[in-house]
C-alpha cells in the first residue's frame, strides 16, 4: 500500500527525518510513535505532500508519488486528519464535511456524508453547529470525518488523543477500528503509545528523526527493554 524508502524531509535547511524506510500493507493500522520533536508529524505531512521531501521516495499502490502535489495525492486516495484539526471555525459541521469532499463528484457526497455520520453519530446531532463552538473531542471527530469525505484508501491521523478526555479517546479509537474493518489502511501518529499499541498491527518508534525500532505491535508490548527505553508504558 505505502512504502517509504530512505525518506528525508524537513523545512528549508533543517532536516527533521533522516532516512526513514518502512512499508505499510493494505488493511493494517500502523502506529508511528515517539516523543515531541521525533519527526512523526513531519513524516505524515511529507506523505501528504505538505512538507518538503529532501531525499528518498514515497510509493503508493506501487506508484512513485514523490513529486505529486498534495491535491493529486488526495485524489489518489491519501487523506490526512492533521494535528490541531484545522477546521473552518465559522462554518457548520455540514459545511466542513462538504469541504472535505471537494475532490469527489457531487453525486458521491451524500453517501460519504452518511458514512461519516454513521461513524460519528455525535456529528449528526451537531450538523448545523459552528465547528468553532464544538468541544475538543467533537472537533477531532469532525477532523477525521472531513478526511473521510475524500473516500480515502489510506488515512493518516495526527495525534488522535491529544488533549481529549478518556471517554472521547475511546470513541475515536472505536471509530478507527471500524474504519479498518471497512478496509481503510490507517497510519496513526500518537503520543499515547499504550492506546496506539492496543489497536495497531505494526509500530515504528522514532527518535530525533530516525527509526530506532520497528516491528509488530504485539512484539512491542512484550519487549521490556523497548518499553523502558522508548515507550514509557507500565505493566
From TrEMBL:
<dbReference type="InterPro" id="IPR052156">
    <property type="entry name" value="BCAA_Transport_ATP-bd_LivF"/>
</dbReference>
<dbReference type="GO" id="GO:0015807">
    <property type="term" value="P:L-amino acid transport"/>
</dbReference>
<comment type="similarity">
    <text>Belongs to the ABC transporter superfamily.</text>
</comment>
<feature type="domain" description="ABC transporter">
    <location>
        <begin position="2"/>
        <end position="233"/>
    </location>
</feature>
<dbReference type="InterPro" id="IPR027417">
    <property type="entry name" value="P-loop_NTPase"/>
</dbReference>
<dbReference type="Pfam" id="PF00005">
    <property type="entry name" value="ABC_tran"/>
</dbReference>
<dbReference type="InterPro" id="IPR003439">
    <property type="entry name" value="ABC_transporter-like_ATP-bd"/>
</dbReference>
<keyword id="KW-0029">Amino-acid transport</keyword>
<dbReference type="GO" id="GO:0016887">
    <property type="term" value="F:ATP hydrolysis activity"/>
</dbReference>
<keyword id="KW-0813">Transport</keyword>
<dbReference type="GO" id="GO:0005524">
    <property type="term" value="F:ATP binding"/>
</dbReference>
<protein>
    <submittedName>
        <fullName>ABC transporter ATP-binding protein</fullName>
    </submittedName>
</protein>
<dbReference type="InterPro" id="IPR003593">
    <property type="entry name" value="AAA+_ATPase"/>
</dbReference>
<dbReference type="InterPro" id="IPR017871">
    <property type="entry name" value="ABC_transporter-like_CS"/>
</dbReference>
<keyword id="KW-0547">Nucleotide-binding</keyword>
<dbReference type="GO" id="GO:0015658">
    <property type="term" value="F:branched-chain amino acid transmembrane transporter activity"/>
</dbReference>
<keyword id="KW-0067">ATP-binding</keyword>
